[in-house]
Amino acid sequence: MSSPLAAFERAHLRVIERNWLSANQIIFYDSEHAGSVVDTGYIKHQDMTVALVREALAGRHLTRILNTHLHSDHCGGNALLIRSFGAELLLPSASFDAAKHWTPLEAEFASVAQRCERFTPTAKLNPGTVISLGARDWEIHAAPGHDPNSIILFEPIERILISADALWENGFGIIFPEIDGQSGFTEQQSILDRIEELAPRIVIPGHGKIFTDVNAALERARTRLTALRAEPIKHARHSLKALIQFLMLELESTTRDSLALHVQDAKLFHNMCALMQMPQLQAVNWAIDSLVAGGHLTERDGRIALA
Ligand SMILES: [Zn+2]
Q1: CA 164 to ligand 1 centroid distance, Å
Q2: Distance CA 224, CA 146 (A)
Q3: How far is the centre of ligand 1, averaged over its atoms, from the C-alpha of 73 (Å)?
Q4: CA separation for the pair 204, 167 (Å, rounded)
C-alpha cells in the first residue's frame, strides 16, 4: 500500500518506520543542503539509525535532532548522530535541564532498567511556539499523559500530526506517571481531546505505520483509557508485560533468573508490582508466563527468548 503522504509532502519529509524497540524517525528536508530528524530510536539500533538517516537525507547534512520526549526508544541514537553529523539537539523545554545535568535522566532510565548514552542538548522546544521543519511551520504542543514532558508537532495547513506515544493507531504508550505515584490518566484524556480539536488528516505515530482514520484511532484510545482508569491494576499489569517485552527485544534470550535480577533494583518495576499487590519475583514470573502464553516469548531448555 502506498503511503498516505502525498508526493508534495514527501518533498518536505520522509518517515522511517522502525519497530517497538526503536521509535520511528521523521526526516525533514529543510533545504537542498540541510535536514533535521525527529526521534532517534534505541541505542541497540544506533548504527542502523545512522545509516537509515544518512540514506534518507540523500546527501544533505543533518543539522538538527529533535526529540518528542526522552524515553530511551526515542533518544537512544542522539549521541551517535551528534558524533556522526555534529547536529544541534533540540529537546522539549521541560526536559532540557534534566538532560543537561544527566543524573536525573540517568535515574529515569535506571528506573525502567533501560540504557541510553549521554547526550548534551543545545536548544529548547517550547510548547506554544512554532518551529520550521521541511520549510513548513510546525506547532509545538505539550502532550503530557504518557510522559509529563512530551511534546507533539502539528502542521496546520496539511494537518499532519507527529503524535509520539500520545496516540498510536491502536492505543497509546504506558501512562508512566500513574506507575510513579502521579497523575497521568487525566492528562492523557486532555491530549486526546486536544488532538481531536486539531483534527489531523494524517498521523505519524512514534511506533507503527502512518494512519489517516484518526477518529477511529481516537475512539479506540478513549475506550482503552476508560478501561484502564476504571481498573488501574490492569494498567500496572499491562505496563509490566510491555516493559518486560521491551527488555526482551534488547536481551533477545535470557533466563527467568537473569531477567528478574536485571529488573531487581528498577524503581518502576517495584511500583508496578506493588500496584499489582504481588511480590516482585512472582509478578515478573506472572508477566513472563502471560507473554509465553500470548505467543510473544518462547521458553525452552530453561531459557526464554523472543518468539
Ligand atoms: Zn515513550
Answers
A1: 7
A2: 13
A3: 7
A4: 9
pLDDT at position 2 is 59
Taking the C-alpha atoms of residue 131 and residue 282, their distance in angstroms, rounded to an integer, is 48
Instruction: Give pLDDT, residue 113.
Output: 97
Condensed to tens digits (0 to 9), the pLDDT of residues 85-97 reads 999 999 999 999 9
In the structure, what pLDDT confidence band is assigned to residue 7 with cuts at 50, 70 and 90?
Answer: confident
Q: How remote is the CA of residue 267 from the centroid of ligand 1, in Å?
A: 17
- 266 phi, psi to nearest 5 deg: -80, 120
Average pLDDT for 229-233: 94
Give the CATH number of domain 7-229; options: 3.60.15.10, 3.40.50.360, 3.40.50.300, 1.20.140.10: 3.60.15.10
Cα–ligand 1 centroid distance for 69 (angstroms): 7
Tens-digit pLDDT profile for residues 113-159: 999 999 999 999 999 999 999 999 999 999 999 999 999 999 999 99
Residues that place a CB less than 5 A from ion ligand 1: 71, 165, 173
Residue type, 306: L
**175 grid coordinates:** 501512562
Cell match 534534566: residue?
Answer: 98
Distance 173 CA to ligand 1 centre (A): 6
Q: 33 alpha carbon to ligand 1 midpoint, in Å?
A: 31
Ligand 1 centre to CA of 288 (Å) is 22
Of the candidate CATH numbers 3.90.78.10, 3.40.640.10, 1.10.10.10, 2.40.50.320, the domain formed by 233-306 belongs to 1.10.10.10
Asked if 142 and 195 count as a contact pair (C-beta separation under 8 A), the reply is no
* Residue 248 CA to ligand 1 centre (angstroms): 17
